[in-house]
Write a structure and sequence with these properties.
Order of helices and strands: HHHHHH
Number of domains: 2
Distance between the termini: 32 Å
Number of strands: 0
Radius of gyration: 22 Å
Shape: elongated
Oligomer: single chain
């Protein structure tokens, strides 16, 4: 395998990683229906469960324990946000080459949910 071929493979991996990271972050941060709970409301709900759990009967206690775990996971999820600026920069740098190499059209990017302004920044146009 030539050095040129190895460099092309490495470039392809870098492009694919940048595009994948952006698409995963985009999917993770998609707005969900309904109002997003605040960390404070989740913590107060957890505190109410803690107060109730000690006197609950076994089945109710089991269900409260699971609900408390679910709430703690939701609180943690609120605190962990991907560095969108970093993944956006990687996408802008590599998406056009990746898309051209893989034959991905503008409409497909949009159908996935990539905003039009992000595609414009990346140099991906409707005309191809």
């Amino acid at each position: 395998m030539s050095d040129e071929h190895k460099a092309a493979i490495a470039a392809g991996r870098i492009e694919a990683t940048a595009v994948r990271d952006y698409l995963e972050a985009l999917e993770t941060n998609r707005p969900k229906p309904g109002r997003r709970p605040s960390a404070e409301s989740l913590k107060s709900k957890r505190d109410a469960i803690d107060a109730e759990i000690g006197e609950a009967k076994p089945i109710k206690r089991l269900l409260l324990m699971q609900e408390r775990r679910d709430i703690e996971a939701a609180i943690e999820e609120l605190q962990v946000e991907p560095d969108m600026a970093s993944v956006e920069d990687g996408f802008v740098t590599h998406a056009a080459n990746y898309g051209q190499r893989k034959g991905i059209q503008y409409a497909t990017w949009r159908e996935f949910g990539v905003p039009a302004d992000m595609l414009a920044r990346a140099g991906i146009t409707r005309g191809g």
